[in-house]
Design a protein that fits this description.
- The chain is built from two helices and eight strands; from the N terminus they run E-E-E-E-E-E-E-E-H-H.
- With 190 residues, the protein is mainly beta.
- The protein has two domains: 6-119, Jelly Rolls (Sandwich), CATH 2.60.120.380; 140-182, no CATH class.
Length: 190
């Protein structure tokens, strides 16, 4: 049931084959400040849920707001905040699109997506915090892991093996510290 200033839209779709995306468009009126999406599907069906804003659902569209794998079935976006892995920003009026990406089906499955649109004044837009900066200005060899999973990753969510970004940073610092204390000292003679 929608609360004051809320409007609910129900979208229906049929998931037919794994890997075949389903696009469900819906209209967002002017004055909307939050879009909340909830997928209702059988528990044994693995489906990713994504969201595109009024700029369109095309490949590499600027309208891409985010996508989850099978780990979550709800998401939201607003100007000042969004679900983890989704992009906050202004809620523009127009046709938005829910994307459904089936990963596991036992045959065709009918699903429902409930979209709740909340009206009201928009909050100030989200601003990215400070960046790390330059670690070392001169050229040299750097050690790092170019493939890490955080709780935002579907792969890590399924296995329960993810570290938070802060956890990865802490682990990397510990590895560097450990490597620097256990490496043999070097001496030179002339």
């Amino acid at each position: 049931m929608a609360g004051p200033g809320e409007h609910t839209v129900r979208l229906a779709g049929t998931l037919r084959r794994v890997g075949e995306y389903v696009y469900l468009p819906f209209d967002v009126p002017a004055g909307t400040n939050r879009v909340h999406v909830r997928l209702d599907a059988p528990a044994d069906v693995a489906v990713g849920t994504g969201l595109f804003d009024e700029r369109g659902p095309g490949y590499q569209s600027a309208g891409f707001r985010g996508v989850y794998g099978e780990e979550r079935r709800e998401c939201f976006v607003a100007a000042h905040e969004a679900s983890r892995s989704f992009i906050p920003g202004p809620i523009g009026a127009g046709t938005w699109t829910v994307l459904l990406a089936p990963f596991r089906l036992g045959g065709p499955v009918d699903v429902t997506v409930v979209v709740t649109l909340t009206a009201g004044p928009e909050q100030p837009a989200f601003r990215i915090g400070p960046t790390q900066g330059v670690v070392r200005a001169e050229p040299g060899w750097y050690r790092g892991d170019l493939h890490c999973h955080t709780p935002e990753s579907s792969d890590a969510w399924v296995t329960g093996s993810a570290l938070t970004p802060q956890g990865w940073a802490r682990t990397c610092r510990e590895i560097v510290r450990s490597a620097s204390t256990s490496s043999p000292s070097r001496t030179t003679t002339s």
